[in-house]
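Field guide to reading this record: the first block holds the primary sequence, the second block holds the structure written as discrete tokens, and the final block holds curator observations. Each block starts with its own label. This record concerns ZFY21 protein, catalogued under organism Ptilonorhynchus violaceus.

BLOCK 1 — SEQUENCE
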Amino acid sequence: DAKKLVRSPSGLRMVPEHRAARSPFGLDEPPWVPDKECPRCMQCDTKFDFITRKHHCRRCGKCFCDKCCSKKVPLPRMCFVDPVRQCAECALVSQKETEFYDKQLKVLMNGATFFVTLGTSDKSELMVCRLSNNQRYLVLDGDSHYEIEITQISTVQILTEGFTPGGGNTRAIGMILQYKVPGSEEVMQMKFTAGEDFSCNKKLSASWLAAMHKATKLLYESRDQ
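BLOCK 2 — STRUCTURE
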């Protein structure tokens, strides 16, 4: 998908030429709180003057003094080329998301193997499941082939085992995915189960499911924007 470099008041961004090609995990730039509506820092209440300048957080758009908005942190969800100024609260959120973009996104794209059951069928098929390079489709390959548009996913339930009343460790062993068929209101369901015969791949499957769980959270946030 072709991309273009654009400049906004917040900084340089590398964005898809067509909005329909944007990542489903992306966020739009927020509108900035107008300077005239912000005589004081929205965090510490310091009054702005010729010495204390105003700075806008690139993630939330609120207005802060330099002390409360000094960190420059990567913000890939808005496609910024370089780290951008963010308030302390937003910087913390963006830093946590860095792990998803640096590690978990690669895990999803590399894929993992699961037994996949469609709907209420009692038959399952061994398939390699991965996220497409443009992040817009969940691709399943086996004897059959499916491509599920990420934006059409309605619910994701991660299946675990190993839970104990005392709060013991749990391990992701599968997931139930529900999604809408484009152009229809019909909701389809797929169940993904890590194969017990592939002990060497259990760790990979668990990592893939954990990454999918994080991806789902970001997807819901993008929708709620």
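BLOCK 3 — OBSERVATIONS
The domain at 3-107 is CATH 3.30.40.10 (Herpes Virus-1).
The first helix runs from residue 88 to 110.
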